[in-house]
Every structure is written in C-alpha cells, then in structure tokens.
Task: structure prediction
Amino acid sequence: MNDRGDIDKSLFSIVNISVQKPISENTFAAIIRSGLFKMKYCAQIFAFFTELPLAVILTFIKRHKLKFSMINKYYNKNIKKYYQNQQLEEYFKYAE
Result:
C-alpha cells in the first residue's frame, strides 16, 4: 500500500467490517449529503462516526468535497443521541 488513497480506503473498510453487504465511500458520501439516516447502513454510519480516527474522517471529507458543517449537522441530528465522539465534537468547535 504505497498510495495514500489505498491506505485511507483500507481504513474506511473499518466501517464495513461487521456487515455482510459493504457500503462504498461514494454511497456513504451521498447519504451524508442527503442528511438522511439510512437504517440499512446504520452499522456503517455509526462505525464511521465512532470507530474511525479523526484524521480518516477529515480525509474522507476532503476527498468527497463535503463541508464540515454538513458532517457536523449529520452527526448532531443522527448520531450524537446514540453514540458520542468527544474528539470529533472538540473538532467541531474550531472547524469552519
């Protein structure tokens, strides 16, 4: 894995580790853009926000040209009431 993209994609595979049907990064980005919580991908959505290191989340945001405010809104609307990520919440305070 010499390519930085391959490293990031392998880290993103963490969100798919416990499910039979994986979600692609592009599909995941589309879900974030929509703002909707898709129950069929709930394990992957929660894993993204709770299992991935902040650096991987930031790389994902940049790669898919998402606004950090969009991630913040999605997290607060759909994730925070069930699972909290203190590191991500700290970052929200200073981002954008």
